[in-house]
Amino acid sequence: MMLRLVFISVFIAISTADFVPIGFKNCNSLSTLNGVEVDGCTVKELEGGKKQCLIKQGTTPKIRVNFTPNEDIATMKTKVKAKIGSGSYVDFPMETDDACKSSLKCPLKKGTAYSYNWGIEMMHQYPLNENIQVNWILSRDGKAKDICFIFLVKLEA
Known about the structure:
single chain; mainly beta; 7-stranded mixed beta sheet; 1 helix; secreted
């Protein structure tokens, strides 16, 4: 029952959110990546045409990934890595890596548009005012990158 309440709360929060398109780089997704949006983000234009998502520390921004699979997908896992400044990549902790237990209802059908939604808490121990590169991957087998995109974030007070 408690788990059901959590999912309902997340669904209500996501459905009433104010999503904005962000800049991202598609890293060879096998599926068609139609767009990435974030609620709780102010988009800042950077040099060279890049865009950065400014997020307030202590908030829980929500991401929405719009995509269309190019083949049927039975299950899907998610993996998020972050690179802070010029450091190395670290795995970003997630409640579950099973994307089918979020807003996606698997199996996914080839040629049908889907939206993957997820909220991530920006904890106070995360560094402020650092450039962060986020790599987000959704895959059916942990290897093939059905969806892969990179975007830039900076946490603010």
